[in-house]
């Protein structure tokens, strides 16, 4: 009995020593971890390589919206009516094709003139995002370029001929409306703006525009005072400015891993 107990104790002690030595060796030489970047699966003698790393995927799709500034101005200004829809489509991670389509009806009133310009316009160009997003965020700070074209009518509602001798010579006033139709204008513009994703695929944005008039139709003995899409011409001549703030929604079509 004593010999059996001693044998059991000896065996248990030997196993304990072996376990301690094995644990010590494992601590000194830990097993090499499997590479995180690549896992290999064998299915029907075919080797398939998969990645366990999560790649950031960008959404590609059509983003369309409306210009809130024109809607608000139409509500506040009795002499103005306007509406604009805008859209862009991502071609590359930071490169978009973009454009705007709209119409404006603007009446210009001064001491000597009452003129209404009414028509539609189209702008097309590109946007370049210069903002570096974190993780899967999709905000933009962008530079843009557009080529714009407008077709419109200008109606002279009434006018008064200005004379330097206001005392002796009566001023000639005409109240006969004269309409000039089929007018056109072309221009280029650069812009700086931002777009912030408020909710999934819903964006709020704004931009400022600097415009350069390339050509416009001429009117006999008169000037074009306002070009839809471009703005007024009588103060700034060939250089104009504008602004916009808008709400847009992107229709996601597919996702693509960020390169």
Question: Can you tell me the residue ranges where pLDDT is under 50 for at least 5 consecutive residues?
Answer: 1-9, 15-24, 34-53
User: What's the overall geometry?
Assistant: elongated
CATH architecture name of the largest domain:
Beta Barrel
Distance between the terminal alpha carbons, to the nearest Å?
A: 75 Å
Signal peptide: 1-24
Protein name: Outer membrane protein beta-barrel domain-containing protein
InterPro entries: DUF6048 (IPR046111)
Pfam family, one: DUF6048
Structure described in brief:
The chain is mainly beta and 259 residues long. The protein has two domains: 1-32; 58-257, Porin (Beta Barrel), CATH 2.40.160.20.
Task: Give your account of this protein's structure.
The chain has 259 residues and is mainly beta. It has 2 domains: 32 residues; 200 residues, Porin, CATH 2.40.160. It has 2 helices and 13 strands. The strands form 3 sheets. Strands 3-4-5-6-7-9-10-13 form an 8-stranded antiparallel beta barrel. A hairpin with a 3-residue loop joins β5 and β6. The longest helix has 27 residues. The N terminus is likely disordered.
């Amino acid at each position: 009995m004593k010999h059996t107990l001693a044998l059991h104790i000896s065996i248990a002690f030997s196993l304990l020593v072996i376990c301690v030595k094995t644990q010590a060796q494992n601590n000194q030489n830990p097993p090499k971890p499997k590479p995180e970047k690549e896992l290999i699966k064998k299915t029907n003698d075919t080797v398939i390589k998969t990645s366990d790393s999560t790649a950031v995927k960008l959404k590609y799709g059509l983003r369309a919206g409306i210009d809130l500034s024109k809607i608000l101005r139409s509500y506040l200004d009795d002499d103005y009516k306007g509406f604009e829809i805008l859209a862009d489509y991502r071609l590359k991670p930071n490169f978009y094709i973009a454009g705007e389509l709209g119409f404006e009806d603007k009446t210009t009133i001064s001491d000597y003139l009452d003129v209404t310009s009414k028509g539609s316009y189209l702008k097309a160009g590109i946007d370049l995002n210069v903002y570096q997003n974190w993780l899967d965020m999709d905000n933009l700070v962008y530079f843009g370029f557009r080529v714009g074209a407008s077709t419109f009518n200008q109606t002279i509602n009434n006018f008064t001929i200005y004379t330097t001798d206001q005392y002796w010579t009566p001023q000639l006033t005409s109240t006969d409306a004269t309409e000039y139709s089929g007018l056109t204008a072309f221009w280029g513009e650069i812009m700086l703006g931002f777009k912030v994703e408020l909710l999934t695929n819903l964006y709020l944005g704004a931009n400022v525009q600097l415009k350069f008039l390339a050509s416009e139709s001429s009117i006999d003995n008169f000037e074009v005072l306002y070009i839809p899409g471009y703005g007024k011409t009588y103060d700034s001549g060939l250089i104009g400015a504008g602004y916009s703030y808008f709400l847009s929604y992107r229709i996601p079509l597919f996702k693509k891993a960020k390169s």
